[in-house]
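Hi there,

I know you've been waiting on this one. I reran it after we fixed the sequence typo, so this is the corrected version. Both the input and the resulting structure follow.
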Amino acid sequence: MVIHVVQQNDSLYRIARRFGVTPDEIRRANQLDDFPYLVVGQALVIPATEVAYTVRQGDTFFELARRFSTTVNDIINLNPDVDPQRLQIGMVIRIPQRMRNYGFIETNGYIEPSTPERETAIVDGVGQYLTYISPFSYRVTNTGALIDIDDAAIRSAAQRYDIAPLMVVTNFAEGTFSTELVDTVLENEQLQDTLIDNIIEILGNKGYYGVNIDFERISPENRDNYNAFLRKVVNALHPLNYVVSTALAPKPADYTGGAWHGAHDYRAHGEIVDLVIIMTYEWGWSGGPPYAVAPVDLVEDVIRYAVSVIPSRKILMGMPLYGYDWPLPYTPGRWARRISPQEAIRIAAEQGAHIMFDEQTKSPTYRYYDSDGVEHEVWFEDARSVEAKLMLVNKYDLRGVSYWVLGIPFPQNWIVLNDMYNIVKVL
């Protein structure tokens, strides 16, 4: 696989010829059928095993092998008619491209229940790339009960791909995470016992592999109560051979205050549970000013802190499969629209926008004017931003990644993931 950034006057034919593939192969890999034309600055994944290279002053096979992470013998074998001692400037030679395999990782994908047909199609599309799948979500009530969800089609489809289902338990109520609700549970031992009993019943009845506790906006003063609750969950579930995981808000240090961060004790979670999902996204969010959803520099700040207090092999780093389209000028209360990376490219193509790549955040962005003359700013994900974040998994020896949320079209993500890692199947 090669990532190519579209330049002025590029065409699928020219790009395909350069990389020794067909235009249809590029079109299929990037799902370009609905796009009117290529966009300057657009990243394309090229399913190539080699690349055409034009020799420049000072080039040698040894230097080219080092630069392209291959071997001199592989270059020689691909160019049998070329004398390595007689390279000429302007000569076109073939350079082999290798899969950059960094080993084995685990992956999780959150999925929002919809219809059996859509759920099955989503799992069929990405099932080979998933270790776990997490239907979102079983919502706790103030009696310790859980509001059931119809996840039969998700679990059935997952079974065909040996994907382990995780039961997600949240304090989500009336469109948000409820502080009052979660505090009620964490301050009442009897409610906790009832909740744990209900979790165990659903795990057994539906064949779940384990549980993912996603309690957010907990009052900071309940930090220790949350840790104690997790110990109770682990003590109840481990003898039954269930995996226990949590979802954590991203923070680059041990913030002990604030509704989103204060009660999430990274060190304690690393000691108590089997794995943690760190939600490293939503810096740019629908209610805030335009910015990258998961800027790699800030994501790395969080991961650097996380591995200092949590065993790295317990960490799944969050990955977004979406972007946002903000109307300008930004004003509080004016919400951005969530869009897929595919839609972001389509809009850029239709509006004649050129895509820029922000080097600090490693994220693509552009601006355009809609039919009413309103300016918009778009930030989204592409193959380059995915690659940059996946490199952090290797750099910090993480367990893997977790995607929010399945069902958003982003074919490049799965190609890049597959090129860089082998996916563990725990079933």
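Quick highlight: The two ends are 29 Å apart (CA to CA).

Best,
R. S.
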